[in-house]
Amino acid sequence: ESAQELQAFRDYGESWYRSRKGLESRFQPQEPLARQPQVTAEARCKLVSWLIPVHRHFGLSFESLCLAVNILDRFLATTPVAADCFQLLGVTALLIASKQVEVHPPSVKELLALCCDAFTRQQLRNLECIVLHRLHFDLAAPTVSFFLEHFSQVRLEARGADAAEAAAARSLAAGVAELSLADYAFTKYSPSLLAASSLGLADRLLRHRSPLDLRVSGYPEELLRDCMDQLQLLVSLNGRSLSLLLPPEVTQKCPWLGDD
């Protein structure tokens, strides 16, 4: 009976994965800054790079951060935003995402305090309503966090899986994916492609003997290689930043970090 239950669980996981993968294109904005006269890729990078430690400060999940960036980009694709309201949009997106994902989301007061009280409670509430209406309350976007978890689980279920390697690759891949959220160049890649490529790169960097079989992602080898190469460049330019995102036991396995 336990074998049947395990198979049923696997079947459910695979079905849920296919469902989420089928929704990716609907939730992925194309060139979110194309309609923004005041918001640049550099400004977006600074905002998301600020949101990364903010989400850690509140103990929020990687899923919340990924969803917040998705909400941010989808709103940017629909509505011009003034430069002096951009930080407010960032914390509003994080608040909305946290309400979707977390049991205990941060309070409005806590979020506004991190903005040095540059904005009022009413301004945040008003923008929250605007964002929700512009996105038609459609917030269940598939994220790179979800796909990282799925591919890591698939890896563990394979015969002869190395649990220690899988855990290390999952941690490093999450750090790499987190870095990519701030880089506008990576908005063109789907979350599932980014997740698979981050895990592939993590296995390569950690020189694992039993790497994830990237064919499980369903992507052609050349597409995976292109994304992995871009992620490798990102890592080489941001080694010190990446080291701050990783648990100590993984950082110890990456002596090349901090060389940027």
Automatic annotation (TrEMBL):
Its GO CC terms are:
cytoplasm
Keywords assigned by UniProt? Cell cycle, Cell division, Cilium biogenesis/degradation, Cyclin, Cytoplasm
Q: Does the keyword Cell cycle apply?
A: yes
Q: Which family does it belong to?
A: Belongs to the cyclin family.
Cyclin C-terminal domain boundaries: 142-255
Q: What subcellular compartments does it reside in?
A: Cytoplasm
The organism's place on the tree of life at top rank = Eukaryota
Q: What positions does the domain Cyclin-like occupy?
A: 49-133, 145-233
Q: Which GO terms describe its biological process?
A: cell division; cilium assembly; mitotic cell cycle phase transition
Protein name stated in the entry: CCNO protein
Cell cycle as a keyword of this entry, yes or no, is yes
Q: GO molecular-function annotation terms? A: cyclin-dependent protein serine/threonine kinase regulator activity
